[in-house]
């Protein structure tokens, strides 16, 4: 069994309309009292309500978006812990650059008020009036910002990847393989396409092995993920600081699937982590349930990245222990004892973590030494 945390060797590129005839809006995001705001997700929406371009405001609140054609558009702005702001209509002309100031007016989101004493009904595409919708929208902002960060920021990272093997019972850790690479793209691992996972499931089976797939931001933000999974707010887990949003496959799905929990900070609305398990699998009660984790990190200027990730898979090994030959009493002839077959259960963890994020010569984030 293998996990698909593939190291990305090519940086992702954002494709925009280009050339002298492009329709461009360049803007600055500010608060009503004229303070610059970084890390805001801005989306260009055409007259039919379709998003046609996205950007992430930089540390000076600036953004640039290119429209596919001239016409009338609106800009939607989303920032963590606030309701969206939908700006006034703007007109983009062929071959012209529009300079625009976007004033944020969305009201604060109050996740502090989300209190659950019993598990809620699991809903697909929850209504905007539900608690699950509000929490999911905050998680989506972080996921979208992480996606835009790797697509638009020229950041590089130092990454350590590893495979660790442990045995249960009286057996100790059997070894670990790790390697560190510098100057990698900000996408340290990639998932399979969301539509492919929705159709075939999160496990690819070969003649002698199976590959387990983890979701990345693209998968979690996709329409196919939303159509095949339902969301629910989970009861508080003894912490006043975290809201837990659970998700699972819709009833009736038979493909190998994932079920999991997104943990969102109650006060800042920041997405902390995703924990997931694989379901709809052949019985594995003897050795446990395969699963994984993804930890998210927000940089000071508002961009996001996946800080660490892992998939763990139960393992089973059979070992033949040969007992020593014993002499037969009153003779010199030895007697051979049949091999003793022992079963060893274990766990293999495949994952990695980011050690450093750099922009040019500047270090934006450094992993604390105790976490290395």
Characterization of the model:
The chain is mainly β. It has a domain at 2-7 and 146-371. 11% of the residues lie in helices and 43% in strands. The chain is built from four helices and 23 strands. It has helices spanning 131-152, 194-200, 217-221, 223-228; strands spanning 2-3, 23-30, 41-45, 51-56, 62-67, 71-78, 85-86, 90-92, 97-103, 156-167, 175-184, 203-205, 210-212, 229-233, 242-249, 257-265, 271-279, 291-298, 304-321, 326-327, 334-335, 340-359, 362-366. The strands form five sheets. Strands 10, 11, 14, 15, 16, 17, 18, 19, 22 and 23 form a ten-stranded antiparallel beta sheet that branches. Strands 3, 4, 6, 7 and 8 form a five-stranded antiparallel beta sheet that branches. β16 (257-265) and β17 (271-279) form a beta hairpin. The longest helix has 22 residues, at 131-152. The chain is elongated, with a radius of gyration of 25 Å. Mean pLDDT is 85; it is low at 5-20.
Write down the Rg.
25 Å
Number of extended strands = 23
Average pLDDT, to the nearest integer? 85
Strand content: 35-45%
What fraction, in percent, of the residue positions are helical? 10-25%
Structural class: mainly beta
Distance between the termini: 26 Å
**Count of DSSP helices?**
4
Please write the string of helix (H) and strand (E) elements: EEEEEEEEEHEEHEEHHEEEEEEEEEE
Broad shape: elongated
Biggest sheet statistics:
10 strands, antiparallel
The quaternary structure here is single chain
Low-pLDDT regions: 5-20
């Amino acid at each position: 069994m293998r996990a698909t945390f593939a190291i990305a060797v090519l940086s992702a590129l954002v494709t925009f309309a280009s050339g002298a005839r492009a329709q461009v809006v360049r803007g600055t995001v500010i608060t009503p009292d004229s303070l610059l705001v970084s890390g805001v997700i801005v989306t260009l929406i055409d007259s039919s309500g379709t998003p046609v371009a996205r950007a992430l405001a930089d540390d000076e609140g600036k953004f640039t978006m290119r429209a596919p054609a001239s016409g009338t558009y609106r800009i939607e702005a989303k920032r963590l812990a606030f309701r969206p702001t939908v700006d006034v209509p703007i007109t983009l002309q062929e071959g012209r650059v529009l300079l625009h100031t976007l004033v944020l007016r969305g009201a604060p989101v109050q996740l502090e008020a989300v209190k659950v004493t019993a598990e809620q009904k699991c809903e697909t595409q929850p209504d905007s009036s539900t608690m699950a919708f509000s929490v999911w929208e905050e998680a989506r902002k972080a996921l979208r910002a992480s996606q835009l960060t790797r697509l638009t920021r020229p950041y590089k990272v130092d990454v350590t990847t590893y495979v660790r093997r442990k045995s249960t019972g009286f057996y100790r850790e059997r070894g670990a393989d790790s390697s560190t690479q510098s100057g990698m793209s900000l996408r340290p691992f990639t998932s399979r396409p969301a539509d492919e996972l929705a159709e075939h499931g999160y496990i690819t089976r070969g003649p002698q092995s199976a590959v387990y797939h983890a979701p990345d931001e693209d998968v979690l933000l996709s329409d196919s993920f939303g159509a095949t999974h339902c969301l629910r707010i989970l009861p508080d887990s003894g912490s006043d600081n975290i809201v837990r949003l659970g998700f699972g496959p819709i009833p009736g799905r038979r493909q190998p699937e994932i079920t999991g929990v997104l943990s969102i900070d109650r006060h800042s609305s920041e997405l902390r982590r995703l924990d997931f398990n694989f379901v709809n699998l052949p019985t594995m009660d003897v050795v446990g349930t395969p699963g994984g984790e993804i930890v998210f990190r927000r940089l000071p200027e508002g961009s996001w990245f996946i800080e660490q990730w892992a998939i763990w898979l139960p393992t089973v090994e059979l070992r033949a222990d040969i007992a020593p030959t014993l002499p037969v009493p009153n003779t010199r002839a030895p007697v051979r004892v049949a091999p003793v077959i022992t079963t060893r259960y274990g766990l293999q963890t495949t994952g990695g973590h980011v050690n450093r994020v750099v922009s040019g010569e500047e270090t934006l984030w450094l992993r604390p030494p105790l976490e290395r």
